[in-house]
Protein: TetR family transcriptional regulator
Amino acid sequence: MGEDDQRRGGRRGDADATRQALLDAASVLFAERGYERTTVRAIAARAGANQALLFRYFGSKRALFGEVMARNGRQRLLATEPERLLEVALRGLLPDDEDGPCDRSLEAFLRSAGSTDEVGAAGRLLGEEYARALGTLSDADDAALRADLVLAWLLGIGLTRVVVRKEPLAGAVPDDICALVLPAARSLLEGLAPPARPER
Amino acid sequence: MGEDDQRRGGRRGDADATRQALLDAASVLFAERGYERTTVRAIAARAGANQALLFRYFGSKRALFGEVMARNGRQRLLATEPERLLEVALRGLLPDDEDGPCDRSLEAFLRSAGSTDEVGAAGRLLGEEYARALGTLSDADDAALRADLVLAWLLGIGLTRVVVRKEPLAGAVPDDICALVLPAARSLLEGLAPPARPER
Structure:
């Protein structure tokens, strides 16, 4: 289908379907190959679309990457009850196989967390949505601040593992991290006092 | 004093004194003007040294900045009992005046946290030292992991406030943040949480 056909005959639904196909293709390829080694050409080919459409819909490879990360995060958010969100989000930061292909995507995302470009913007938007969902778990007056502090913890853990690679946190087993972080984060969110000291 | 005098007659003590004067001058100027607006020329002038010495001792402005941040952090570490270190480190991340001149230094430091350059390297080294000091507060088997998790939280809070600027955390009063974070972090460090420890 040529450009002219796109302009004259392409219905809104076609554009949405193409956009969706590009996001799906990008999601698979970024995860398989990492950000750097995924070409715009490969994404377009896998989606059965042309590169011009990719740039028209998303503007740049970085912006497309931001949308993919935001979409994946949002899907996880929508599919998860608030009670389990904290654990699901934390485990999402802790891939079991540290050499897995997702690592470089997470790294690119975390490295962009503070930047003003599209990836950073997508991350901030997603952060807002997670904070809102986590905030519903708390009936404290300062629920929003508590939720931000929990998210800041997740961000810091992700950075320390994936970007800074500080040991022993970088190589720690996800279950061990969850066992330490989740009770502390939950009691912060729920406004509970820290657990009483067990007999030792 | 010319190059030849430096090589022949300069004593080790002179070099140390000049190095120290450059660090002192850089520390003041980075805090007053921020990283970008501080020139190598101004640092050398304030220290009464020449720019060639600055480059000889530190290699680059970025590397000097890394040394300044690491030195300030190390001085705070040495001057603080371990029991108070957590609060002192957290408050160090939370300048009361958010438009204060230190903010941009912290921002530059946090933006470099994951990079492989000298600033990132200084940050990682400092992180090791803080983690070791915090680890002494815990007698848990996994004290080092607990210390890393607490440091990751501080890193995430700093990033969220200074770089991402997410509200309400970015604008929250330091006392309010300390009131939420310190009990949770202390109970994590001291091994009070989680209450049910796996048998070993």
Summary: Residues 1-59 of chain A form a domain with the Arc Repressor Mutant, subunit A fold (CATH 1.10.10.60). The CA atoms of residues 184 and 197 of chain A lie 13 Å apart. Chain A has a mean pLDDT of 79. The longest helix of chain A spans residues 12-37.
